[in-house]
Amino acid sequence: MLMLRVQLPDTPGSLGFVATAMGTVDADISAVEIVEKGPGYAIDDFILTLPPSTLPDTLVSACDMLDGVKVLWLSRYPENWGIESDIATLNRMAEDPAHGAEILTEATPVVFHCQWAALFSPDRSVLTSTALAPEFTPEAVDRLNPLDATHSTDLDEGWMAGWGDTVVAVAPLSGGRSLVLGRQGGPEFLASELNRLQHLAALAN
C-alpha cells in the first residue's frame, strides 16, 4: 500500500481529475483525506495500491501531467493501517480519559500518516511508544528540543545511530509530558497538521 500526498487546485472537479489520472495506471484508491486548504489550493493524502506491474514513478508521472497538480510525497503505507479521524481519536480518548495520552500516542501514526510516536515524561524518559519508534539516547532527545512547545524539526541522517533523515513533530501535554511523532524522510508536517496535533494533545489527560 502507498500514501501519495498531492497538491491540487481547490476548484470543483480537481479531485476527480486526479483520481481519474490515477485510474489510468490502475491505482486502486482506498481512502482520500484532505490535509490542508489554502488560497486556491488543497493538499490531499491518497491511500492506494498499485498492481505489481506498475512502478510508483508511473503514478507520479500521471499526476504531474495535470495542470496545477504537484506530487509532494510518495511512500509505503502499512497494509493494516486505514485512516482514523481526529474525532474518532477524541471519542476513544473520552471513553477512557485516564489513558488519553497513551491512546493518542498509539493513534497518531495512523491519524497523521507517520511511522512512529513516543510519549515522554517530564524527566524526558519514554513512557510509551509505538512499535517502530527509536530507542532514544539522551543526546537524541536533546535534538527534539523544545519539548514544551508545538513545533516541527528536521533531523539529518545520523541524528541517532542507524537512523536516516527524519522529520519530527512535537506537542506538549499536561503534566509536563510531550508527544513526538516521526516521519522517515518526510514529508514535512504542515501547519494544519501541527494545529491538529496541538489540539489533540491539549485534550489528552
From TrEMBL:
- Protein's recorded name: Amino acid-binding protein
- Organism equals Acidipropionibacterium jensenii
